Amino acid sequence: MEGLLEVGKVVGMIIVIMAVAFLTESTVEYIFGTLTKNVEKLEKFKWLSLYVALLVGVGIAFYYKFDLVALLGETVGLQIPVGYPGIILTGAGIGRGANYIHDFWSKYFKKPDQE
Fold it and tell me: Structure pTM?
């Protein structure tokens, strides 16, 4: 029963991280993307939205101490401490958005019979 609770915790945290990734991507696009579309002088800076999203994602990951590397390590019994590299990688994933994390999860953690 304890193992089942641990898996539920990991899955729940992954869902939270994906939700935050979706919200981050949507909010940055709404604020920064809309600004660059509607202000002609800023239109040439639209390419910066990728980096704005990256900074926001990393900032959120640090604030909430999201570390997907440590979390996934728990699922296989590894004791990976929450640390800066994992938080930065998780923040980069959050900045890229929910689709990026979903693609990663589907590619590397898909059951063999789902191919």
Answer: 0.76
